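Researcher: Please predict.
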Amino acid sequence: MDIKSAGTALKTGRRSELWNPELDDTLVCIGVHQETHDVKTFTFASADHRSFVFDAGQYFLFDFEIDDAVESRCYSISSSPQRGNAFSVTVKRVAGGKVSNWLHDNLAAGARVKANGPLGRFVRNDRPGSRFMLLSGGSGITPMMSMLRDMADTCEDADVVFLHAARTPRDLIFRGELAGLAEKIKGLRLHFLPEDRTGELSWPGLSGRISSDYLRLAVPDIAGRIVMCCGPAPFMAAARSIVGELGVPASNYVEESFDSAVIDETVEAPSEPAGARTFSVTFSKQGRTIDVTEEQTVLSCARKAGIRIPSSCANGICGTCKSKLLSGSVDMQHNGGIRQREIDAGLFLPCCSRPLTDLVIER
């Protein structure tokens, strides 16, 4: 545990033992709440009654046992870090989504699940005088809710504009609570932007998609704000382009996404450098063998060859691509997405690993 985490625990006055990300991995679901017609919030506590220390904006990597297989997914924390006895994640049911549908249909209070965290760097900086623009689309609202709930719990003197976009008014997650938070957090300006008014034709505000014209009117001082964005990949691509047009420097734009579409995207493998050693990498369950040089990551080459490996961040943070290495050795440069005891058990992250020998991977 780092000094910052220990200090946070002391400031919040927690007396119970703290959750240790290196050792603890079992959570118990203690509550399920229906937020909208297709969104549920799941609340978890430590199976060993430990308290959690995390920053608003972080996430947990969950391992769910579904149909005799382990499915890994990252879910951002939506609850306040000031309430460390438990934490919540909020999940939207995705059409055809294996894990989200299983969670909505099966996970109930009392169920135990495995998880690793807290993880992630999508957190607000603590520089005095910073002004923020929080921008979310769909279920990308979850880390933003953790931040806003944290501000409310700490009575922070904040200067924050929050814009949440959704398909329709009934898809606006936390709509009622956000209205209450806007009353409590005096420096919070709240904007809702449904794409259309279906189901609520009397919607009093604008509707449509985010645009430079809309943001220019809604947030005229956006160029002087730190913009934090989370949502589906197309939403974030549009936001990134728009705020750049409006003068937000790249250094003041931060984004986070665990869009399920990432699993199916092609990761471009770097070209093979002249003289680099080449190793064979076999995926035992899929019956495929490919060549990977010592300068290429296993994940990038696997994707280029059409081999399916779930992934999200592609840089060793989230742990979604975690796999069993049956034989061989790799050079793995991760950023916290795997525990030492998991490495000792033969697991590795293909996204940030380059082969040192021929490999056999249980995928």
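Model: The chain has three domains: 3-119, 132-258, 278-362.
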